Automatic annotation (TrEMBL):
NCBIfam families, sorted: Sig70_bacteroi1, sigma70-ECF
Keywords: Sigma factor, Transcription, Transcription regulation
Annotated RNA polymerase sigma-70 region domain residues: 36-102
Transmembrane is among the record's keywords: no
Top-level division of the source organism's lineage: Bacteria
InterPro entries tied to this protein: RNA_pol_sigma-70-like, RNA_pol_sigma-70_dom, RNA_pol_sigma70_bacteroid, RNA_pol_sigma70_r2, RNA_pol_sigma70_r4_t2, RNA_pol_sigma_r2, RNA_pol_sigma_r3/r4-like, WH-like_DNA-bd_sf
Gene3D superfamilies associated with the record: 1.10.1740.10, Winged helix-like DNA-binding domain superfamily/Winged helix DNA-binding domain (1.10.10.10)
RNA polymerase sigma factor 70 region 4 type domain residues: 139-190
Name of the molecule in the record: RNA polymerase sigma-70 factor
Pfam families xrefs: Sigma70_r2 (PF04542), Sigma70_r4_2 (PF08281)
Record organism: Flagellimonas algicola
Length: 207
């Protein structure tokens, strides 16, 4: 292995065989490790990207590969084929990542399925639905009370009393644009305040 063009050798060109290079790694030579990184990073990243869709995940796998090489450098045999060793480590790390991701996705899907089943059973019960409606009404009142007084008044007249924007503006002595802004702000606030109920409201209305 000739390292003349890698920056590893500073003063003169020397041919170094793989065995000697591994010995340098075992001794913790930082320049040897830097050379290894420069020679193999792009190649290993290309392999990892072939297994993983995420650019970020591929980078993480390759970085961990080099980290493990450094941490376990004393276990490297002098006769180790670094090329095959690095490729095998990267491939196995990618397969482990995919396996872990699959388990994680299956767990998330299972939790979501259980949550939907609980919601479905809950909504089938009329008494439970009534409790949910009461809770929703309480949350709506609570959300309205958190609005600034004028914004709350405009919103109530629009959504609960059914007045048009220009009617509210005339009644309250403010511009229609001000009414529009108050209602837009109130809607944003209420969507945030009621976000946990939004997915259930439509189910209740369809019962």
């Amino acid at each position: 292995m000739e390292l003349e063009q890698t920056g590893f050798l500073e003063s003169r060109s020397i041919n170094i065989n793989a065995n000697s290079f591994i010995l340098l790694l075992r001794k913790g030579d930082n320049r040897a490790f830097e050379t290894l990184f420069r020679l193999y990073y792009d190649k290993l990243f290309h392999i990892a990207k072939g297994y993983l869709d995420s650019h970020e995940d591929a980078e993480g796998v390759v970085q961990n590969t080099f980290l493990k090489i450094w941490e376990y450098r004393l276990k490297l045999e002098v006769s180790t084929n670094l090329n095959g060793y690095l490729y095998a480590m990267t491939k196995n790390a990618c397969l482990d990542h995919l396996k872990h991701q699959k388990i994680k996705n299956n767990y998330i899907d299972l939790r979501q399925h259980k949550k939907r089943m609980i919601q479905y059973q809950f909504l089938k019960d009329e008494a439970a639905s009534l409790l949910l409606k009461n809770e929703l009404e309480r949350k709506i009142i609570q959300g309205l009370d958190l609005l600034p007084e004028k914004c709350k008044k405009v919103f109530v007249k629009s959504r609960m009393e059914g007045l048009k924007h220009h009617e509210i503006a005339k009644l309250m002595g403010i511009s229609k644009r001000t009414v529009d802004n108050h209602i837009a702000n109130a809607l944003r606030h209420m969507r945030l305040h009621l976000r946990e109920f939004l997915s259930l409201i439509f189910i209740i209305l369809l019962k």
